[in-house]
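A quick aside before the break. I want you to see a complete sequence-to-structure record at least once, exactly as it would be stored in a machine-readable document. Don't worry about memorizing anything.
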Amino acid sequence: MTLDPAEALMEALSGLPLWGKWVATVLIATLPIIELRGSLPAAHEVFSLTWAEAYFLSVIGNLIPVPILLRWFPNVEKWLRRWKIFEIFFNWLFQRTHRKGWRKVKLYGDMGLIFFVAIPLPVTGAWTGTVLAYLFRINRVKAFIAISMGVLIAGIIMITVTISGYLIGAMIILGLVFILVLMGLIEKKMVGDTFDETTP
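That is the input. The structure line, written in tokens, reads:
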């Protein structure tokens, strides 16, 4: 029986030696958008690693790009903005990230950056948290510590949701959504509803 490409890839990945599974987990976690949201289940379900191994490797992989981005992002941005397509992309990225995270950072300071990274949703994570830290000119060391704490919390949330089963997992997600909505209402009340491009 011929396997479809996805099944063939899964079979090939599951047949990697242990060190290959570790490397693959770290590499998956370094990817933007996917991050540890993808590496944790892949490590456990596809590579058959323990949750402890999956968590440790995913956190390490998710944090690898952070100091590099914090240090070199301004230089890379400046160089890439010479082309119109990247000018458009960075304008879109910064405006979107600013809109998603500016209230949290304005209201909670560094803790807001932890909250932003810790909630494992597609619009949050270490990559966008790094962009947010750059936009708000947060000290690189403080930003790295805050993002690291957010990644550690996000990993725990992901494992808890995954191993709790669908019903309990759904309840946990609903609880997180409720907390996010409540935080949003508090932020709107205390910070205001007006988006200010000049507000760092």
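Two observations worth writing down. Residues 193-200 have pLDDT under 50 and may be disordered. The longest helix spans residues 165-191. We'll return to this after the break.
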